[in-house]
Amino acid sequence: MKHVKKIICIIGMALISLSAASQENGLGNWLIYIGSKQLNSKWNLHHEIQYRNYNTLGDLEQLLIRTGLGYDIGSKSNILLGYGYINSENFTGNANDQTTVEEHRIFQQFITKQTIGSVSLQHRYRFEQRFVESDFKTRFRYFLGINLPLKNPKYYLSAYNEIFLNGKSNVFDRNRVYGGLGCKISKGVKLELGYMSQVFETSSRDQINIITFVNF
Questions:
Q1: Among 49, 70, 111, 160, who pairs with 44 as Cys (CB 3.0-4.6 Å)?
Q2: CATH code at position 61
Q3: pLDDT tens digits for 111-129?
């Protein structure tokens, strides 16, 4: 519990120090919870909530809720069928007006893990069918994650790159690059504080990420 309080204080101080800067340069913040419930030796239930802000806190960009049923293939691979609900607050034109856009998403994914020395790698392949208001879209995503433990086994470095490709015109959708510092609170709980740069076809945007992982 002492470690949890310490990390909460660090995160709080980081948010306060970043608040002024975010107002100036548009730095956003994502609060992320990712959970996995092992139902038996093979099946697992994935659940996820992401609260994304245009600034540090209080200016909602997107609320994402995702869940899915996964099945383990051996000890290092998993297939999953999932559903996501996304509520986006998009700016329209050059004005400050925002429009609410709702999306329902079905997705299939395959995850496989490997280790090279002390480094852990994760490959995730995800195919999405997106129902955005009255439009139907498809998208493919490839995620490569790297996890490197530090000298103190409670702490680790985390990094990933994820590319998004649309199923029709304007194939390139976006690319995300992330780096962060994580702490293992207990056997099933981890916290990460990281920085992500997201590049679109004609623009880019940066976010601070605060991520909680819970496995039970």
A1: 70
A2: 2.40.160.40
A3: 999 999 999 999 999 999 9
